[in-house]
Amino acid sequence: MSHVNSLPMILFSLVLVLAFADAATFDVVNQCTYPIWAAASPGGGRYLDPGQTWNLDVAPGTTMARIWGRTNCNFDANGQGQCGTGDCNRMQQCQGYGSPPNTLAEFALNQPNNLDYLDISLVDGFNIPMDFSPTSGACRGIRCAANINGECPNELRAAGGCNNPCTVFKTNQYCCTDGPGSCSATNFSRFFKERCPDAYSYPQDDQTSTFTCPSGTNYRVTFCP
């Protein structure tokens, strides 16, 4: 059978696998002493008082997904407003991604070899300490809970958070815009990496910052763990 003829069967099989796969449940928990306007893409947004949890179901096969927290938000009755950090297009119900600085829990579900891929990314900077851990499945959690806001280099300081140097300087040295291998660790990325070894510190930090869990795992994202 040719590869061309077999491709529709492969795609059909993948659709069947995803159709019978269960959605992954994400418990988004605010353990901070202050309110968080949690955000998810896909998923929208939810206000969380200290101690509150948002239960979010994410469809199998979802990729390029992220969860983050917004701080110092003010929204009107129509859900329009703005946040001090992590703002997403001035909307309470997020569509798209948030504005730096914001600590990110990123994931792709039901990928090849029956794996989920997950990471904590500081490529958009840092605003809230975070833990991203499985609540089922045999795999490890990841965490970034250092005092990055308090120790942030002066050049990267922002109201309510600490910017990644790419956001500030917008050059290939920090953003890796010229493609794979076009940049490497810098003193600024080392600042993040030393404090949060599990987290992405710059865009090509893959080898030490991407983790896997078996597909079908459920997760908890905790702010201020």
Automatic annotation (TrEMBL):
UniProt keyword annotation of Signal present: yes
Superkingdom of the source species: Eukaryota
Disulfide bonds listed in the record: C32-C224, C73-C83, C88-C94, C139-C213, C144-C196, C152-C162, C166-C175, C176-C183
SUPFAM superfamilies, per the entry: Osmotin, thaumatin-like protein
UniProt keyword list: Disulfide bond, Signal
First and last residue of the signal peptide: 1-23
Family: Belongs to the thaumatin family.
Name of the protein: Thaumatin-like protein
Organism field: Salix viminalis
Lineage: Eukaryota, Viridiplantae, Streptophyta, Embryophyta, Tracheophyta
